[in-house]
Amino acid sequence: MTRGALVPSRFAPVLTSLAAIVAAMILGGVFLAMRGKDPLAAYGMLFSRGLGTSYGITETLIRMAPLLIVSAGLLISLRAGVWNIGIDGQLMVGALFAGVVASAVAGQIANPLMWLAAALAGMGGGLLWALVPAILRVRWGLNEIITTLMMNYVALNVTSWLVKGPVKDPNVVPPQTRLIPQEMRLPDIAGSGVHIGLLVGLVVVLLVSVLFRNTVVGFMLDILGRNRQAAIHAGMPVNRLTLVALLASGALAGLAGANDILGVKGLFQGNWNPGYGFAAFALVYLARLHSLWIIPFAYFLSFLAIGGEMMARPLGIPTYFVEMLEGLMLLCFAVATYFERIRSPFGRAEEIETGPATAGEPPGPLVGDPVFEPVARSAGGRP
Amino acid sequence: MNRHRGRLGIIAASAVLVQATLSGSILAQDATPAATPGAGVTVEQIAVVTPSARTNQGWDQQAADAVDSVAAAAGIEPVVAENGGYDDITPILRDLAAGGAGLIICHASGYQTVCPEFAAESGVPVAVIENPGAVAPGLVADIETQAQEVAYLAGVLAGNTTETGTVGVVVSGEPPTWNYMTVGFAEGLKAANADATMLYSVIGEAAYDDAAGAKRVTEQQLAADADVIFGMGDGASFGMIQAIEEHNAAEGATKAWFIDVIGDKKVEHGDVLLSSVLFDYTGIYTQMLDDLAAGTFGDIYTMDVQNGGVRLLDLPEDLAQETKDAVAEAEAAIVDGSLTVSAISDAEEMKAKVAELFPE
Amino acid sequence: MNGSGVPLAAFVTAMLAAGLVAAVPLVLAALGEAVGEKSGLLNLGIEGMMLAGAFFGFLAAFQTGSAVLGVLGGIAAGAVLGLVFAALTVSLRVDQVLVGLAITIFGGGLTAFLYRDIFGGQNPSLNVDAPRIAIPLLSRIPVAGPAMFNQGVLFYLAFALVPAFAFVLARTRFGLQVRAVGEYPFAADAAGVDVTRTRYLAALIAGSMAGLAGAFLAVADLKIFQVGMTVGMGFIALALTMVGGWNPYRILLASVLFGLLRSLGNGLQILGIDVRTEFITMLPYIGIMIALAILAGRTSIPAALGIPYARGRR
Amino acid sequence: MANPHPPAPLSRRAGRGGNEEPIDRGPIIAMRDISKRFGPALANDHISLDLWPGEVHAVLGENGAGKTTLMNVLAGMYQPDAGTIRIAGEEVQIASPADALRRGIGTVYQHFTLVPNLSIVENVVLGDEGGFLPDLSAADAKLTAMLADFGLDVSPRTEIRNLALGQRQRVEIIKVLLRGSRVLVLDEPTSVLTPGEVTALLDLLRHLRDQGVAVVLITHKLGEALAVSDRVTILRNGRNVGEFGPDVMTGAAKESVRDRIVEQMFGATQPTETRHHGAQQSIDVSPGVAIKHPGHSEPAGEESRHSRTDAAFSRDSSFLGMTTSLRRSPSRAESGTTLLSLRGISTLGDRGAPALQDLSLDLHRGEVFGIAGVDGNGQKELGEVIAGQRAVSSGQIFLDGAEITNRGLGTATRLGIGYVTDDRLHEGSVAASSVTDNVALKAIGRQPFSNGFWLNRRAMDEEARRLIVEFGVKTPGPETAIGMLSGGNIQKLLLARELALAPKLLVCNKPTTGLDLRTARFVVQTLREQADAGKVVVLISSELDELMEISDRIGVMYNGQLVAVMPRGETDLETLGNLMLGGARRAFKVPA
To answer: Which stretch of DSSP H or E encloses residue D109?
Structure first.
């Protein structure tokens, strides 16, 4: 076995994603053709509008900011083996908090301070929303997939109630927080039309990258995600790490909400739910859970959303095409990872070492249990 | 290996930044010159952004259809950008502007901030819903709908039609428009039938598409003896209609009626449709085009009973004459100003008002 | 808001009925999910499968004018996605959560796209018969009778399927194999159970039931299709499966409680009892979390849930 | 293939006690030239094997010799890459375990294959072909009789999780017999049994043989094989290196057979078993002969490095020498001061059942404390409690007089308590992470790997490289995922990782399981050296010889209690074996 075979090219994982994207676009094209649309025209317009127009590029970059932040957060939880499906709810609560705080202090303190306050409030909101599933998981071993999902519905209702009542701007008819004047919102990057939220997004991704590459916490989160039992064995504070993963993920979702409020919307409206959650999932997987690859894929998905919208209307293609394409990409990605696995020497080794071994293990007491935390562990007296 | 990855990421990041800067300079080149207030503008293309699909035979469709018919009449091009959602619609606005839209209707109260800001930035005139504060000459017009007036007429209609004396209101959320109409309806009902009972149910928070939930709620209201349902639901309305149709199909049931809002479902559901509150935007859209040409755009445009912007769908032929008379009478009173309907947008105030009208 | 004139018996009947009918799609989807999870498959694609069932069921019924064919079409659509799920997670051993979410996204996009593309600006209703069938005698029981025994075919089917699923899981060879495969696939394999086949079948059942749940909504209950008309019911069904501890009867109980919580909320509103809408709406979701917290550790979860099985054969 | 003892001619079968069978009966199973490769490793290399009805056929070999792979091929779990299988003369493809069962081949796996949440009867009918509804009551009737025959006093409706391990194994056998198996394969069936249960099992196997079943006993324990088999096949490094037919097994004196088998198992020179029962002889394994995993290439320059493993071998070119040197060293137990004390410790096992009951123990500096016991009697839990891995429900733990009860793993590690788990794949290492990361795993929050917040990747890398060289770990490099390495190399790294933390006390749970002899020797010797350097080593092992070799004191666990603690000099294998049984009781009842 040569060393070259052992260490796959650093592009290899991303090539898998690219193959999946190409496959999905071909399938999507075939689908369009079957429905009597011209796929070449569609993709042609997608690229010409999304990449060939200034506003296409600008809007793509603006849309990237929240995607970057949300995905960086999701990455933290997924790398730690924690499923945070509650991104959307955390983002809503974070956005509401940011909207309330920002409009309350706008004009009374310097803008940068106001932004900071709002960003902190947004992170606090997202964190608060992730706290409930986090506690349920750590304290009662409740699976976070279900609880974070349920918290999304609760978030919709709670933010809606708040924005209709306690924090509503009394001077306007619709339920919304007080507007942050445009001149007090995040400024553009050197006259580009793209607000500095993009920079925040890039910095957050870089920080997350540093977290995993260079810090003890990141190292531990990675170990936790790869082998929970080994993390316990090595004396890592797994409960605290689980908590950190969910809370960090929630806080960043909240920050993304704050970013949209401060950079684009200027206020929080009832029922506002941009639904970045699913896109972030697709994105983080396509980036192969690697922090820095999030950047190009965020650009791509953002481009797809913006360009797709612009392409659909003139061609009479329902805008839902992009959503379908996203689903297709994930499905193709799933298939692609299989081929990647069987072709890689590590995949084979994994098969030998853990395949039959795992298969041969008697089912342990809820260890590695994806749905409930190993309750039996604590009953068994493990620290 | 790790170090390489790091470099890659930095390259990717800088590529993005470079593009951001580049796009800025491109934008600077092709920015549309701002319209000058006072000077007339000929609109070649009128566009509308709707939050949901235009096919919901409701809120979105009324605006989209109006844009189509106004454009046809004026011989200009209509563009309907549907499914805008409540997300940031700036990309859509930019795209519409780049496509040559001379007037953009922002057909959701959720767009009332982003659109004026976009107009200021791009110079493309826009019309928003329910934001009189944003009005700017030549740039931003505001559409106010006196929906409570026509809802009052619906209340009068319901009060005269009900045989059980119980009338239901089903809403798919509590947005301002629904609240205006609930209050108007309640006042009309009270005026027409002082002994009536009014039931009020919310399907859920933002349950605009929850047809199944709507059906359940409506069934419960029908069981509580309501025989006229005033339903404000968008997509959810289909669930209400389904409930009423099934109710009527049952043996020995008292026939129940549905009063719809914003849309005409007569062709398919004429058997249960008593009437519908129609928002007819053609008038004000035409007015806007005219004002743009004359250089007087940028005002509050009101749709009310008087100007026909809001009206009831033609009542069924076989409806009792006295009912028709009662509705006509109320309509006349509103038009001549002798009757004023309360305009309440807030959910809590709306509930207080209804409780006052129909005390326990 | 005056509820004084409300005919109480009929009103309570309607409240019960509304709660029960609301539970139907949840029960159907959750029963299928229970079989899937018992076999070790955690399917987050139910929402997408339900939408596919709703749309293709609607389409079939619309084209043929037959409610029966519509329901079958819905089941078929769910089954196809169930097979896709099985192919990716069982044969290719890809992460189940990833595949499930992908199917949910894809199902939502596909059905919305096709509905708009095929029906354009129209929102047609189905013109099919889905009559209520009153069961003699039982339907005359005061209050509960009309709620429970004067309903459509699928309503009865949903409730009849509960003991059927319980029986299949507990007593039949297939149920035995499902339980074994989800608990300890290696043992099942060694005993000669075809793990792959069993999980495929379970995924097929999970998909078909989700499709049936969707078809119930579009073909039987509402007779229309709407983009995103399942409004998260698939995810609720997923949660109810766990609240019900994979036991069909307890799933039924959980689903009915969920449905009743909603109809009770509506009932309170109608009676003029002023409760904030938002709190009523979110009550069932909080209820699920509380129920899960109470039940945590008391139900024994299928040990191999979410874990792909590889015999080690290439 | 060099086989000095060709098997008896296939056409005739020498019966036990001189009973001749008809000469036309051939083997029921004939495996020919079976090969099976896993990635780089050739697990089976042209192995041939014949199974005869009415015989117990032992397949002997060290861990990793290819026994289990061969049996998995026969069981339909794996498909062979090459070779043929004939059943009663007819060539067949065994496509799946179900197929194997249909063809009358029943396998009892090392890890039991009973579904814990199903009842006995459900497990028995599971996989049956048949109608929609399994006939449980019919199966009940058959089972009840059979359970009684097998000495099991339980209802067929008992859930498996409520049975003891020995009981479960019997249910396994019943299960495959009820499926009509004519061939019964048992993979290391005694590894989880008490000695009493072992005896009973061997009786049972003889009984089945007499009923005409072809019994295959896969084991690495020579004593068992000698006690029960009619025929022995020896595998080494994936090859079939010898076979002894009934003529030899029943004819010659046991001792001479043992010697010949040992020779086959360990090489051409005169090796002697040291890791199995009763061995007092010397063994000579010269590095040239030993233990090179097939297909496991070594990175360039490996030979030139002088690793501690190699040093161990050059210093003690014979185990006798080393053993003697160890035996010569005086027991240090009395001289050392107490480092760690357990007082009245009770705790629960993973499944919530009591695992330790009111246990007290003092550990002294400079000693190796050996813990013997049949699996499942609380050794693992005791090790975990000492190492701070498991919280106690009552009792106290003192380190140097200071109480550290339930202070958590972090504290234990900080105070210098190390632990090498027996589950190196799932607990000890993170397969997908690099060697470097695995090396740093336990001390990641401390110098030199980090300052508590920032990682020092360079220090991690340097440490990994140092340990790789010092412990002779075969890996392409420190960045290689640890899952790519062989079990022995992983074990070396885990031990190296603990030693690098310079613990005062080191708990090792079965550190030599599955290792090749050379690595096993290295590990054991390293542990002894640690103790000699004044540390405390707690060695949990199922290899009594290993315990006898390096321990200063040996404690025996039974039923969650230390039933005896003896200086090494005051005990012997027989005494230990007896104590492991819990006195003289033949216990089938181990708390589940």
So the answer is: none
Nearest-Cα residue of chain C relative to residue B197: C2
Neighbours of chain D (3+ CB pairs under 8 A): A, C
For D226-240, the pLDDT digits (tens) are 888 888 898 887 888
The whole-number pLDDT of residue D325 equals 41
Length of chain A: 383
Is the Cβ of D133 closer than 8 Å to some Cβ of chain C? Answer: yes
Instruction: Report how many domains make up chain D.
Output: 2
Residue D448 preceded by cis peptide, ω within 30: yes
Contacts of C116 in chain B (CB under 8 A): 53, 55
Which residues are bridge partners to D47 per DSSP? D34
Question: For residues A299 and A314, what is the distance between their CA atoms, to the nearest angstrom?
Answer: 23
pLDDT tens-digit series, residues B322-353: 999 999 999 999 999 999 999 998 888 898 99
Comparing CB atoms, the residue among D347, D406, D425 nearest residue A353 is D425
Domains present along chain C, CATH in parentheses? 8-126+139-295 (1.10.3470)
C-beta atoms of D433 and A220 within 8 A: no
* Final residue in a domain of this structure, among D208, D243, D266: D266
Give the mean pLDDT of A174-199. Answer: 87
Pairing assessment for the beta strands D368-372 and D553-558 based on DSSP bridges: parallel
- D169: buried, middle or exposed (CB in 10 Å: 19+, 13-18, 0-12)? buried
Residue D31 forms beta bridges with which residues? D49, D85
Is residue B66 domain-shared with residue B165, that is, in the same domain?
Answer: no
Residue of A nearest to B25 (CA): A192
Q: Indicate left, alpha or beta for C25 from its phi (over 0: left) and psi (-120 to 50: alpha).
A: alpha
Tens digit of each residue's pLDDT (9 = 90 or more) over C283-312: 888 988 998 888 876 777 888 888 888 875
Please, how many CA atoms are within 13 Å of residue C122, restricted to the half-sphere of its CB? 11
* B188 occurs within a structural domain: yes
Q: According to the per-residue pLDDT averaged within each range, which of A32-46, D171-185, D281-295 is highest?
A: A32-46
Shortest Cα distance from D413 to chain A (angstroms)?
A: 8
pTM of the model: 0.84
D321 and D256 in a common domain: no
Q: Is the pLDDT of residue D305 over 60?
A: no
Question: Both B104 and B163 in a single domain?
Answer: no
User: Looking at this predicted complex, what is its ipTM?
Assistant: 0.81
Phi-psi region of D60 (alpha: psi -120 to 50; beta: other; left: phi over 0): beta
Residue B65 DSSP one-character state? H
- Three-class DSSP category at A216: helix
Domains of chain A: 3-379 (1.10.3470)
**Contacts of residue A5 in chain D, CB cutoff 8 Å?**
none
Which residues sit opposite D239 in a β-bridge? D236
How far is Cα C250 from Cα C242, in angstroms, rounded to an integer? 10
Instruction: Enumerate the residues of chain C whose CB falls inside 8 A of the CB of residue A282.
Output: 102, 105
- Those of residues 223-242 in A touching chain C at CB distance below 8 A are none
Residue of D189, D207, D43, D55 lying closest to D110 (CA atoms)? D189
CATH label of the domain that carries residue B351: 3.40.50.2300
Tell me if chain B has a CB within 8 Å of the CB of A182.
yes
- Considering the domain architecture, whether residues B155 and B255 belong to the same structural domain is answered as yes
SS3 A206: helix
Q: What is the pLDDT of residues D439-491, one digit of tens each?
A: 998 888 888 899 989 999 999 999 999 999 988 888 888 988 888 887 778 88
CA distance B107 to D472: 73
* Distance, CA of D342 to CA of D358 (rounded, Å): 9
Alpha carbons C126 and C59: distance in angstroms, whole number: 9
pLDDT higher than 90, residue D263: no
